[in-house]
Amino acid sequence: LKVRVVRSSPPSSQFKATFQESYQVYKRYQMVVHKDPPDKPTISQVRLVPVSFEDPQFKSSFNQSASLFAKYQMSVHKDTPSDCGENEFTRFLCDSPLEAEHAPNGPECGYGSFHQQYWLDGKIIAVGVIDILPYCVSSVYLYYDPDFSFLSLGVYSALR
């Protein structure tokens, strides 16, 4: 048995060279140990959308996100429909004190508040509300379609 310590951040050449192989081991592990289905969402099914009513992706997915939030709140937290309407959703998960900023040496997406949308078959099945700041990423809230709870999307989101 040979064990290597490979720098993952910033990614070293060894990390890059072994990434796919490591990912396949991780995927097999998740399927065998945690019984994840092989069709669990992949990176290509996750979209990072700025929380801004000026952003076309945010605007076009707003109704679907708000409906999913209501379904989650009523199923998981037993909220009433009036507790999780569109106004409550906007106040709780869309209004942010953070201002969007694009620093020249910052991430491509910039800094600010984002909805990390998990899509499956053209439908949003989970949304992670996150703040991206210069020295950290803060998870604000995660909600998901209870019909997909078997995918452990909260765990997947935290690890991602």
From TrEMBL:
GO terms for molecular function: arginyl-tRNA--protein transferase activity. InterPro entries: N-end_Aminoacyl_Trfase, N-end_Aminoacyl_Trfase_C. One of its GO terms (cellular component) is cytoplasm. Coiled coil: none annotated. Keywords: Transferase. Residues 66-160 form the N-end rule aminoacyl transferase C-terminal domain. This is ATE1 transferase. It comes from Phainopepla nitens (Phainopepla). The gene is Ate1.
